[in-house]
Amino acid sequence: MLTSHLAQLRPLCPTCRLAGRGAQALTLGHVAQAQGEEVIEGVLLCPHPACQREHPVLDGIPVVVSDIAGWAAHQLEGTLRRDDLSPFAESLLGDAAGPGSGFHAERTNLGIYGWGHWGDWVAAAGRAHGGAYARLLEDALALAEATPGGLGRGSEAPATATARCC
């Protein structure tokens, strides 16, 4: 999509037109990839406060449809399997598909897996909180301390308890 074409054609937000909010001209938002005047990957934005839809620009083609979630749900599987999309475009498409889409489920599962297994590395670097397993262990120990007669941190084992294996 050439930026000069955007200025000349002034595409309108189809969602606002369907909702009766008048003709809202889309504006160019973030450009993830460009070659001179041509936008290869980016986003067109609706300026109306009640709408604020994001319409992706993929391979230089603006996707200006009223039901962006429906379009994304039908096109998402093949589009996201490409290896040449920027992280911005992947995130934009995933957000457009919304909850309940296959991409949302995959992104959620990968996030849980990643934090559960490697989140403590991020905490060791001082950037964020620890992983899910570390938080689960801390919560379990806190519950054990709060439980009457429970064995918590710093508590001694009852005198009748003996160490045994299996």
Description:
With 166 residues, the protein is of the alpha+beta class. Helix content is 45%, strand content 14%. It has helices at residues 3-9, 14-19, 68-80, 87-97, 102-124, 132-146, and strands at 27-35, 38-45, 54-58, 61-62. Helix 3 (68-80) packs across helix 4. The chain is elongated and about 70 Å long.
Give the helix/strand layout:
Blueprint: H1 3-9, H2 14-19, E1 27-35, E2 38-45, E3 54-58, E4 61-62, H3 68-80, H4 87-97, H5 102-124, H6 132-146
Antiparallel strand pairs: 1-2, 2-3, 3-4
The total strand number stands at: 4
**Spatial separation of the terminal alpha carbons:** 69 Å
Poorly predicted segments = 157-166
- What is the C-alpha radius of gyration, as a whole number of Å? 25 Å
How much strand?
5-15%
Q: Give the helix proportion (percent range).
A: 40-55%
The tally of helices reads 6
Write out the strand line-up for the largest beta sheet, numbering strands in chain order: 1-2-3-4
**H/E element sequence:** HHEEEEHHHH
- How would you state the average pLDDT, rounded? 77
Query: Which structural category do the helix and sheet elements fall into?
Result: alpha+beta
Largest sheet: 4 strands, antiparallel
How would the global form be characterised? elongated
Defining key terms:
166 residues; alpha+beta; 6 helices; four-stranded antiparallel sheet; single chain
Sum this structure up briefly.
With 166 residues, this protein is an alpha+beta fold. It has helices at 3-9, 14-19, 68-80, 87-97, 102-124, 132-146; strands at 27-35, 38-45, 54-58, 61-62.
